[in-house]
Amino acid sequence: MPYEPPTPPAGLPAKLVDTLNESPPEQLRDVARYAEGLAEHREREARLEKESGEDDIEERPDNLPDDVPTKATITIKEINDNRYYYWQWRDGDKVRSKYKEPVNPDD
């Protein structure tokens, strides 16, 4: 049974397949190394772009205490018929809270 050349991927443009079929083995190896490096570079760029988008955190509010993370939200708790604002955030499996101020009834 004679050795058959590999079948090109369906998505490759015919012009590229023709160029590769006409290339000598050493040039094909160079192309393979370049293509692998280029693919890694583009994947890394896409990953970094995605990660930088996830890191686009709003600036820290001026009234946010130093020991409260920027991901904290404000919640209202009612204690003895009085309402209070609290900073609240998740810390692992726990929900943490820190007193902020009383709720102004005029708001």
TrEMBL record:
Start-end of Basic and acidic residues biased regions: 40-51
InterPro entries: DUF6788
Skewed-composition ranges (Pro residues): 1-11
Alphabetized Pfam families for the sequence: DUF6788
Region (Disordered): 1-26, 40-71
DUF6788 domain span: 56-104
Name of the protein in question: DUF6788 domain-containing protein
Species this chain originates from: Natrinema gari JCM 14663
